[in-house]
Structure formats: structure tokens, C-alpha cells
Amino acid sequence: MDYSKYEIYDFDNTSAFNMSTGYKERSYQMHWHSYGEILLVGPGETNIFRVNRSTYNLSEGDFVLIWPMEMHAIIDADRQESLVIQFSNAFVNTLFDLQRIMHFYRNLSVIRAEGHQELTCKLQEIARKMKETFFTAQTNREVKCCMLLMEFMMTLDEHREEFAPEPGTDMRDPYEDDVMRRMMLVTDYIKNNLTADDLSQGAMAQMAGISREYFSRIFKNVTGMNYSKWLNMIRLEKASELLSHKNMSLTEVAMLSGFQSIPSFNRVFHEDKGMSPGEFRALFVQ
User: Fold this and answer.
1) What is the CA radius of gyration of the chain?
2) Of 63, 142, 68, whose CA–CA distance to 102 is shortest?
3) What tens-digit pLDDT sequence spans the chain (286 residues)?
4) 36 strand-pairing partners
5) How would DSSP label each residue in 19-75?
């Protein structure tokens, strides 16, 4: 079977999960899309990938993590036996824990087997189960693959200390379900109201019904970053999503993402992406 036919997939209207392999071409141009990808690197002496502004020379068994709206390219790699896992951003956003994991690992683009042998062995086994489930067309394969995707994310999160800013620090402090529900309420509110007048940390703490100091500590633990950095990231995610709509002006994109001015939008966008919003828009693929 030629699995490469799965390369273009309509996640918005069709599915939450897709998988492909068997590409003969060794490269693919710089691009981005609204869904995320996980690449399991195949064999070969040369496996060079680029994610955002970093280039990686990887080995068989390594993983490349490409989060939604991230720029990436395959410079030169064995695509015949590599495995591509694709997942809908909308699916990830339905579960707070998946959002939390994705945001915490947002700056993690590769997992090398050489440095994380135990973790990569676990993740490779999960990927193998996904492949078996997906390509043998098992009953309810999408549900089963999504469950395996969640297992993949949870396994990654179990090894958080390996990637934490301060090694040895346990950043998974348990919180009561009521507190976590409040945090979900706040994060959902922000994502749906980026143009609101007051999205300050103090206002959001008040909405959650907890002190500003406690809110700050919880937020850092569950997202892996401070509030202002997270808010900026959410604005950029929204802007990136809106840039996929060709008929929307850059001014509209900036305003709907919560940026107060075009210069501010351009500056923050360029600092994160290394290019202007217009240049970024040109790299979008369906």
C-alpha cells in the first residue's frame, strides 16, 4: 500500500488523527499548518530536520515534535521508513491536561534516543501500536489511536524532570480538582476573549477566586511558564491560526489576536518566528 496518499488530510472537518509513511522524496520545503506532527526518524546516515530556526541532525529512533503552527522542514532524511503522526489542534484543546503538556513542551523539538533511552523506547512502542492500529484498519481505529496519542503525551509528561528548567525539580505538584477546573475556566476564557479590556494576571486570579500569588504559582506549575509569557504565546497562536485565512488583513489578524498596535504585533511576531507575519503566511499549507 502507498501510505503517502495520507499526506494531505482535512483535520478541520474529517478527523482528529492521521498517520503516514513511505515517502520516496528525501526533503520537504519549509511550511506550517494548524495541526501538530510527531516524526519517528527512520534509518540512514543522514536525517536532517529543521523546526523553527533550529536545524537538527538526528538518528534512527529519535523523535521530532512539531507543535501546531510551528514552521518546519525536512532538509534531507529517509522518509521511506520514517513515521509521521499527525493530530488535530482542536482535539488537543478539548482536554486541559493535553494543553498543559503541549504548552510545557512547546520549546522541545527533538527527543534523542541517545540521551533519553528509556523514554524513547516507551514512545517507540506506543508509535508501533499506533501504526499497527491505523494501517490494519482496526475497528474504531481513530478512537484507539487518539487514546494511544494521549498515552504518548502522558508518557512524555512522566519524564518531565528530564526537560525541566531546573533538573531534579518536581513540577507536577498535585492540585485539587476544583482548582484545576478554575484554571481551565480561566484559560478557556482567555482563548475566547483575547480582545477583552483586562486580561491581567490579577484580573484572572480574581476570576479564579484565588490570590494573585497562588494563581502565579499554580500557573507556572501547570503550564511550565509564567503568565505573561503564556498569554503572549496564546496571542501568537491565535494570530498564526488567523493568518491561514488569506482574505483577512494583517491589521484584522493583529486586532483579533489582542495586540494593541501593528508595530507591537510585528515586533512580537518577528521575535518569535524570525520573520514578518506576511512572510509567515506565505509558508502556510493546507
Assistant:
1) 19
2) 68
3) 343 343 444 444 568 999 999 999 999 999 999 899 999 999 989 999 999 999 999 999 999 999 999 999 999 999 999 999 999 988 888 887 888 888 888 889 999 999 999 999 999 999 999 999 999 988 899 999 999 999 999 999 999 888 865 433 444 455 566 777 888 889 889 999 999 999 999 999 999 999 999 999 888 877 778 899 999 999 999 999 999 988 899 999 999 999 989 999 999 999 999 999 999 999 998 7
4) 87
5) EE-----S-EEEEB-SSEEEEE--SSS--EEEETTEEEE--TT-EEEE-TT--EEEE
Residues 254, 262: contact at Cβ < 8 Å? yes
Q: Which helix (H) or strand (E) holds 17?
A: strand 17-20
**CA-closest candidate to residue 258, choices 206, 192, 183:** 192
The domains of the chain are located at: 3-162, 177-281
CATH number belonging to domain 3-162: 2.60.120.280
Q: Which fold has domain 177-281?
A: Arc Repressor Mutant, subunit A (1.10.10)
116: nearest Cα among 59, 69, 169, 171 = 59
Pair 239, 257: CB distance under 8 Å? yes
Give the alpha-carbon dihedral of 185, 186, 187, 191, to 10 degrees: 100
Single-letter residue type at 215: F
Strand order of the β-sheet with 36-40 is 17-20, 83-87, 36-40, 63-66, 110-111
Report how far residue 184's alpha carbon sits from residue 94's, in angstroms, rounded to the nearest whole number: 11
Amino acid identity, residue 286? Q
- pTM score, whole prediction: 0.83
Q: Do 3-162 and 177-281 agree at the fold level?
A: no
Contacts of 161 (CB under 8 A, 6+ apart): 167, 168, 169, 170, 171
Instruction: With beta carbons less than 8 A apart as the criterion, state whether 108 and 162 touch.
Output: no
